[in-house]
Each structure stands twice: as C-alpha cells, then as structure tokens.
Design a protein that fits this description.
41% of the residues lie in helices and 14% in strands. By secondary structure, the chain is of the alpha+beta class. The model has no long low-confidence stretch (mean pLDDT 95).
Length: 332
C-alpha cells in the first residue's frame, strides 16, 4: 500500500528539535542525534555545559494529553518511590508534557547501559524483584485514561484492521480469518479461566531493549505503552528456551518478584495467549503505520508475499502453543 510522503514527522527537522528543547529554557550545543524509535521520534540533544537530554516527540493523534500525562505521573511516582525507572523531567511549574509548533514532546535524562543478560539467573532474580516493586505501586490504583491489554484491543482490533483494509493477499485471507478467529476464541477462554485475574498498571512493553543494565542493576525506560493488564505481561518476555529452561527462569523471576508483591500463579496460563496477542498486534501496527515513510524504509520485508506466508506459519505455531501445558513451577 502507498505511504504518505507528507507525514507530519517529515517536518520535524533537527533545527525544529533544537528549537523545541530551547523553548523550555535549555541552551543546546547544536548537536542532535536521532535514536532508534519508530512509534515516536526520539533524539539525543546536546546541552551547553551539561549532560545531553533525550527528547521524545509523541506521534500525533496516538495518545491524548491526559493519557501521556498519566504515563508521566506513573513513572514519576515510581521514581519517587526509588524504583529504577527513567521518568520525564519537569519544568519550574511541574509540567512534563510540552508543545512546540504542533509537536508534543517530553524531555528525559540520558541513561547509559545495555540489555540485561537473561541467561544469568542472578539477573533474573534482580529483574523479578524490581518488577515486583513496580507492580506493588502499579496495583495501588488504576489508570483512568489509558487502555487495557486484552483480546479486544490487541487481537480483534488487529484482525479487523487487516481484513477490513485489504492488507492480506487474497489467497491468504480465508486461512488468516479462520485461524485468527479460532485463536482469539481460545485466548478469551484462557483469560476467562484465569482465577482471580487482576489488571494492574504495567510497563506494558517490557522486552530487554527497554531495560538498561548498568552496575549490576536495571533501569526501566520507555513507558509509552504502559496500560492496565495482568502482571505476567511484564514477566513473560524475560524467559526463553525450551520448557525446562523457561520453568527455571520463571521460578527465579518469581522468587525475586514475590519478595515485594504477590503473584497469582493462574496468570501463567496467559503466557502463550499474550505472546499471540503481541504478534497479532505487531503485524497490524506495521500496517497501521505504513503511511509513515520510516516504516517502508526500516521494514521493507513487510507486506510481501513471503511475509504473509511466514506470518500464517507463525499463527499456526501460536495456535498449537496456546494448547500446551502451563509452566509448572512446583519443582523449582
């Protein structure tokens, strides 16, 4: 499908980024570097006689101001409770969300680090204990302006968007429609069967790339996808390997986690359903953003026949995975 060469981000030039940062009262040294980010645009901006700042320009029309501010308030509350999260900077009036020439943006301190080594059980224990602290605060009250992670928002919305907008090649539409309908029916049944399921405020996108590991400790960044959801959403992306390896890893994570916050073991049955929802959502996200010129440039393999063949194969594997036995942690 065609993309829009006049996308609003095309006018976000380096000079405009510098002007936006200086409009808050900072004096830049005229250095600006684009960082890897596709949903938003993120830059490192040099500041005279000070450490560089990270400027995040929010994608137009994605979140309301209230939803962005709620994200900021959540991360600030976490930071004030001495959780290792990177929260936005405030101006003298306490504001964290700014506007410049139609662009909404926030500023963050720059943190260094690398993705955690997830094959290290000590690291997993530390990550589990940190997430337990984050979730203890996250469970204290709900979001008012941010959505929940569920089969409707990540699954049905994704499926309907792709089918209604004719993204799939004709020869794959029927199988995709049937397979995803069956998969979503099972996912909804798994959610319904999870006893005492509680939705809490989450990071929401807790993959290793959003964790900066330094000095034997994590710093959690990019809460842009924070939302209400089951606690397991922030844990399952930290495990990998075969079933035995995953059981050992999850046991270590939960040993640390439960030092600070109780975990409902019924949520373990949601790991594969949540994985399936993430993959369905990712596919529709690429399609939804295809008018942004950055997406065809960085994801040239998307919307090719080979991609849809592989996506259907992945969905078949996910269909089988959601029926596999739930992780058993009793022996660990």
């Amino acid at each position: 499908m065609p993309h829009n060469a006049q996308h609003p981000y095309n006018n976000l030039t380096p000079d405009r980024v510098l002007d936006a940062v200086e409009s808050i009262g900072y004096l830049s040294d005229a250095r600006v570097f684009g960082l890897n980010s596709y949903e938003n645009r993120v830059y490192q901006v040099g500041i005279e006689e000070s450490a560089p700042l990270i400027a995040k320009f929010y994608r137009p029309e994605r979140w309301s101001d209230a939803a962005i501010i709620e994200e900021h308030q959540f991360t600030q509350a976490l930071a004030e409770a001495e959780n290792p999260v990177v929260a936005p900077l405030s101006d003298r009036e306490g504001r964290t969300l700014f506007e410049f020439e139609g662009y909404r943006f926030a500023l963050f301190p720059r943190y260094g680090g690398h993705a955690p080594e997830l094959d290290n059980l000590d690291n997993l224990f530390t990550l589990g204990s940190t997430l337990g602290r984050i979730h203890a605060l996250g469970a204290a009250k709900p979001f008012a302006h941010r959505p929940a992670l569920d089969a409707a928002s990540f699954g049905h919305w994704s499926r309907n968007f792709l089918l209604d907008n004719d993204w799939l090649p004709q020869q794959y539409r029927y199988e995709y429609s049937q397979l995803t309908a069956e998969l979503l029916e099972i996912i909804e049944a798994r959610f319904a069967a999870a006893d005492r399921l509680q939705l809490i405020r989450l990071h929401g996108d807790c993959h290793p790339g959003n964790i900066l590991w330094r000095d034997d400790a994590p710093n959690f960044v990019d809460f842009d996808d924070c939302r209400m959801g089951p606690a397991i959403q922030d844990l399952w992306m930290l495990i990998s390997g075969d079933r035995n390896q995953q059981q050992i890893q999850m046991a270590e994570i939960l040993e640390g986690y439960e030092t600070y916050h109780a975990f409902n073991r019924a949520e373990l049955q949601l790991i594969e359903p949540l994985r399936a929802l993430r993959i369905m959502h990712y596919c529709a996200w690429l399609a939804r953003r295809w008018e942004d010129p950055a997406f065809p440039m960085h994801f040239p393999w998307f919307d090719t026949e080979s991609y849809w063949m592989e996506h259907l194969m992945e969905l078949r594997e996910l269909r089988a995975a959601v029926d596999r036995p739930v992780l058993e942690l009793g022996n660990y």
